[in-house]
Design goal:
The chain has 458 residues and is an alpha+beta fold. Helices cover 53% and strands 18% of the residues. It contains 9 helices and 12 strands. It has helices at 3-56, 62-65, 94-97, 138-190, 205-262, 267-294, 306-318, 343-360, 415-425, and strands spanning 71-75, 80-83, 102-107, 113-123, 126-136, 302-305, 325-329, 338-341, 365-373, 376-383, 429-435, 439-447. It has a 5-stranded antiparallel β-sheet with strand order 2-1-5-4-3. A hairpin with a 2-residue loop joins strand 9 and strand 10 (376-383). The longest helix has 58 residues, at 205-262. The structure holds adenosine-5'-diphosphate. Adenosine-5'-diphosphate is lined by residues 352, 356-357, 360, 383, 385, 388, 396, 401-403, 406, 411-417, 440.
Length: 458
């Protein structure tokens, strides 16, 4: 059953119930009131007769007391003693026989209703006579008989009218919802997330529904776009990774072919193969790190003293081949600074920055600095290398991005992407500033760790 029909039926049903209740009440009150009046008149006539009998020991003139619609009868349990007109007898209810005044509603031989009051008259404490007064109820019957169909027809008419009005109103109220539903349906069918449900009405319940629905579509569209970008990035990643792995493999295979043909173990070819195999395993390790990061595998973090860690990395970096002055400027306060981190990944990120600085700086200085910055600590690797062109700067953290001069330096383009991921993993960030011809500064900012309770404030 449609919502419209249900609403219309509900309202009509409510009205019909209310009207029925009202009609029954009116009918009942009318009947009750009329009978009460008749009863009062029967009572007064009966008592006048009974009083006269008890006081004066005689029956008053019944004709004088009765009017056209009142019948009076005086009787013992066997005989009718007197009656206002010759109309036969009335039944004596058992209650009245037992001595209690009683009202009853009877029907005469023609089936016409009348109201009867039977009043026992006591002699020496015993009911001996009964005064009976009756009045026909035809008038009431006629009024009620006329009223019934009027009420019935009235209720039916009102029900029809209300039904029609409720149907129309429900239709009007539901129309915007229907429009929204069919718009939503067509959006679902076309699978076009850029479509929106048009709505110009007031911001009522329907307005809010449309607003919420369109808002949901916004979110879906955004999510879908992000998903598509992620899938694209993943495809690119796989393609780039395959491409990167192909080059060293080709070189190794070429050398094996050469060695086979030459029949001797040329030390140069073997060295080539060794270097390419080393490059490949380094690349594979980086790829694996990225894949783990993509899979959402985040290593456990623990409170670490930053000073010893940075000093250790600088010591190891100093052993890397470089042609620059390597300056380490770490304040003693660094030893008291703790971060919540993963030692191995932090080492790796710093090494990537230092390795890049050495790789891309043919002469000059590479400086490592550290200091407090806001709620955190910043580690900086500053070089006096060729710098990064402004158009490349925003892309250096992208996977597989390599600046032009880098191509000859054998990097995979994954180093900074990994370092940046490590920064994010620690709730920090990695930023780069550079001026072509002057050098570059890579800053790794990490939030300082403060134990929740009882810790020292560094
Ligand atoms: P790669 O393996 O090529 O070094 P990275 O992700 O570490 O990959 O770096 C991406 C690119 O950013 C490099 O190819 C290079 O062009 C540029 N780059 C990174 N560090 C420096 C630096 N210290 N000086 C100049 N250019 C740099």
């Amino acid at each position: 059953m449609s919502l419209r029909l249900r609403l219309a039926l509900f309202y009509t049903g409510q009205l019909v119930v209310a009207l029925l209740l009202f009609s029954f009440l009116m009918y009942g009150v009318l009947r009750w009131n009329y009978i009460r009046e008749v009863d009062a008149s029967l009572y007064s006539v009966a008592w006048r007769v009974a009083e006269s009998m008890q006081r004066y020991w005689r029956i008053p003139s019944l004709k004088g007391l009765a009017d056209r619609s009142t019948f009076i009868l005086v009787r013992t349990d066997e005989l009718v003693i007197a009656q206002s007109t010759d109309f036969g007898t009335f039944p004596v209810p058992a209650e009245a026989m037992a001595g209690r005044a009683t009202y009853t509603t009877e029907r005469d031989v023609n089936g016409e209703p009348y109201r009867l009051y039977t009043l026992p008259v006591y002699v020496n404490g015993e009911p001996v006579f009964w005064v009976q007064v009756a009045q026909p109820l035809q008038l009431l019957e006629r009024v009620l008989t006329t009223l019934r169909p009027i009420l019935g027809a009235g209720i039916a008419g009102f029900a029809l009218l209300t039904g029609a009005a409720a149907w129309w109103l429900a239709g009007r109220a539901i129309a915007p919802v229907q429009r929204v539903a069919s718009a939503a349906e067509s959006i679902g069918q076309s699978a076009d997330l850029s479509l929106r449900v048009p709505y110009q009405g007031p911001q009522d319940e329907v307005g809010r529904l449309v607003h919420t629905f369109n808002g949901m579509l916004d979110q879906l569209q955004e999510l879908y776009a992000r998903l598509a970008t992620a899938v694209d990035a993943q495809k690119r990643f796989v393609a780039d990774a395959s491409h990167e792995l192909r080059t060293p493999l080709t070189i190794i295979r070429g050398n094996i072919d050469y060695l086979e043909r030459a029949g001797t173990l040329d030390p140069e070819a073997v060295a080539d193969m060794k270097a390419e195999a080393a490059r490949m395993s380094e690349l594979l390790e980086e790829l694996l790190a990225m894949a783990r990061a993509d899979a959402g595998q985040t290593p456990e973090l623990e409170p670490l003293a930053l000073g010893p860690l940075v000093r250790d990395v600088c010591r190891r970096a100093g052993a890397l081949p470089h042609q620059v002055d390597f300056v380490v400027e770490l304040p003693p306060a660094l030893d008291r600074i703790m971060v919540l981190g993963h030692a191995e990944w932090l080492r790796r990120a710093l090494l990537i920055l230092l390795d890049n600085a050495f790789k891309y700086t043919p002469s000059g200085t590479v400086t490592v600095r550290a200091g407090r910055q806001g709620e955190g600590v910043v580690l900086q690797v500053i070089d006096t290398g060729p710098g990064i062109p402004p158009e490349d700067l925003p892309r250096v953290f992208d996977r597989f991005f390599r600046g032009d001069p880098a191509r000859s330096r054998g990097g995979s383009g994954l180093g900074l992407a990994i370092a940046s991921w490590v920064a994010g993993l620690h709730g920090g960030r990695l930023t780069a500033e550079s001026k072509v011809g002057e050098g570059s500064t890579f800053s790794l900012w990490l939030p300082v760790y403060r134990p929740a309770a009882g810790g020292t404030n560094s």
